[in-house]
Design a protein that fits this description.
heterodimer; A: mainly alpha; 13 helices; 72% helix; B: mainly alpha; two-stranded antiparallel sheet; 12 helices; globular
């Protein structure tokens, strides 16, 4: 496979591809350009391509992290900065927890053969079926009245971990199955305990699976709105919640809101570029391999 | 002796955290919801104080015209969106399944819309649909056409929501069908080429039938997700104008938070779950039936030999 030859295609084909790419990323580019515009430019009727880019909207959104004084910000609204911190903490912690817990469970299911793989696949599918809207009422009720963890970050993390576990277990299983058991037996001969085998032998071998699972979990936690909205109070709001809250006001400040939207979109975009292969593996694993 | 005990307990130790969390934060809430759907319950009450009303919530909902309307909107939305996305997605996969430079870059760009937060997707589209500053109306105006009331007119709002969803999710079907196409056995392709099949005949008689199992799973996954769409519509129209885009998920969340009827919201959630279960199960049975037929045909063919 040293030289891959590429077929030559006719020009119409390339035109189609260009059109598709424009359609796919056009809205994202438009959001980026709007976030770099002053409101005067956004509202003007003239061409939308010629304008002076400015970081002012980002400065407004992130005003409590600025290390210098931005002259044109007369009032600093800290809501977004706080939400960004919350979002980061919640997504990172729930990703780490989901991975550790899910990985252990997947390993136990594969190596010790409790239930068939079918049972897990089926329950993953069943869990995937449950819309977050369906969890809304009971989670609100239980978190408020029984666990009494409403309004805390821990409460939100707990839902996210639970929501992501079925998928993570399922995808990690398909990777753990491929780890040769001889490797583990050899490690056990050399005196490693079950935990040692797991952490020192199995984990390093399933890194690609872990990457895919981590991206999916992070993305769900980072992007989720509905449950966070129901559970969070003023101090634990995440970014999606603050964006929706500022949307409902009558006069929308498009520049700033696009800047916040862009900030919310940046981590998933980075992941996509860094690890698109793992993402596609994760997406196709269920359907194509069966 | 002790180490044998540890070994026997290990699997349970490994499973325990996941089992506990899923039981507490998934299974328990779902059971709780089923129970709550029989109560007349508002958010300021503890569940124990709520009055037990039997099936009243369910019966009320059936008689509620706006619930029936949003049920209908949900079905219409899911059916239209999934049909369009399947056609475009599979079509593009068949078209782009070639050995071209930069295919992986292309795939990366195509999955971007799915990775971005639905809230942000709603935001982008709401800006583009904006009556005066949005790009669609600006373009229409510059070529001398009337601006379109994208989000403020009932039927246009529905179309706008469908377009946004198609933009976001067609790549999902594209990626899955492309993966399916690329894993097809090359021998079948070659055999048909030698037999002189044209491109269309190949697509119609060989590629599509061989892709069918994957396509069915894809369809099922996408259909399930189409019933879960909420954030994009929430940001774009918040269900309006009127009830024209109020899908069931949105209605559940509004019943719970605005009308403060937790019991009714729970009953609605159950209707949605039942609907999804019927769909999943139906698809599953269909799949089994197709497989059984294929097996029977194969067997018959073998007996003929």
């Amino acid at each position: 496979m040293a030289e891959t030859t590429y077929e030559r295609q006719n020009p119409a084909f390339y035109a189609l591809i260009v059109a598709l790419v424009v359609m796919a990323i056009g809205p994202i580019v438009m959001m980026l350009s709007t976030s770099l515009k002053l409101n005067v430019d956004i509202m003007s009727d003239s061409s939308s391509l010629l304008f002076m880019p400015t970081l002012r909207n980002y400065e407004t959104a992130l005003c409590d992290f600025l290390w210098y004084d931005a002259p044109y910000i007369d009032y600093c609204d800290k809501t977004f900065g706080r939400a960004l911190v919350n979002s980061l903490i919640i997504s990172l912690i729930s990703t780490v927890l989901t991975l550790v817990i899910g990985c252990m469970a997947a390993y136990a299911l594969v190596r010790f053969r409790f239930m068939g793989r079918d049972a897990v696949s089926l329950s993953t599918l069943a869990m995937r079926m449950v819309p977050p809207a369906v969890l809304l009422v009971p989670v609100f009720g239980i978190w408020t009245f029984q666990f009494q963890i409403d309004g805390t970050r821990a409460g939100i993390i707990l839902v996210y971990v639970a929501m992501n576990l079925p998928f993570v277990i399922w995808i990690l299983q398909s990777f753990i199955v491929q780890v040769p058991i001889q490797l583990e037996e050899a490690a056990r001969m050399d005196g490693a305990g079950p935990f040692g085998v797991f952490f020192l032998v199995v984990l390093p071998l399933i890194k690609p699976g872990l990457a895919a699972a981590a991206i999916f979990t992070f993305r769900v936690a980072w992007n989720e709105f509905l449950l966070a909205n129901a559970l969070a109070d003023r101090d634990s709001r995440t970014v999606p919640v603050t964006i929706v809250n500022s949307m409902t006001e009558f006069d929308i400040d498009w520049g700033v809101i696009m800047a916040t939207g862009m900030l919310l979109a940046v981590p998933p975009i980075i992941f996509t570029f860094v690890a698109s292969r793992q993402i596609i593996t994760g997406m196709t694993a269920g359907a194509v391999k069966g | 002796m002790q180490s044998a005990n540890v070994n026997r307990l290990t699997p349970y130790l490994f499973l325990a955290p996941a089992a506990v969390i899923m039981a507490a934060a998934l299974l328990y809430p779902i059971c709780y919801m089923i129970y709550a759907s029989f109560l007349d319950w508002n958010p300021s009450q503890r569940i124990g104080e709520a009055e037990f009303v039997g099936l009243r919530n369910y019966i009320n909902l059936l008689g509620d015209a706006s619930f029936r309307e949003s049920f209908g909107v949900t079905l219409k939305f899911a059916a239209i969106v999934v049909t369009i996305e399947m056609f475009i997605g599979v079509g593009l996969a068949l078209l782009l399944d070639r050995n071209i430079r930069g295919m992986s870059v292309l795939r990366t760009l195509f999955i971007l819309p799915m990775m971005i937060a639905p809230i942000v997707v709603g935001l982008m589209w709401r800006y583009m649909y904006h009556p005066t500053v949005g790009i669609f109306n600006k373009t229409l105006k510059s070529i001398g056409l009337e601006p379109v009331p994208w989000l403020s007119d009932g039927s246009w709002a529905f179309t706008s929501v469908v377009i946004a969803d198609v933009w976001q999710w067609t790549p999902f079907i594209f990626i899955l069908s492309l993966a399916a196409l690329q894993s097809l056995p090359q021998s079948a392709m070659e055999a048909s080429r030698i037999d002189g099949a044209t491109g269309w005949q190949q697509v119609w008689h060989i590629k599509l039938p061989l892709m069918m199992p994957v396509l069915i799973v894809t369809l099922l996954l996408r259909l399930i997700d189409a019933f879960k769409v909420l954030e994009v519509i929430l940001v774009l129209t918040n269900g309006g104008p009127g009830l024209s885009t109020e899908i069931l998920s949105l209605r559940i969340s509004r019943t719970a938070s605005e009308f403060r009827e937790l019991g009714e919201a729970a009953a609605m959630s159950n209707y949605l779950l039942i609907l999804l279960m019927v769909l999943t199960f139906g698809m599953f049975l269909y799949n089994k039936a197709v497989e059984a037929r294929a097996a029977r045909l194969r067997k018959a063919a073998e007996e003929d030999l």
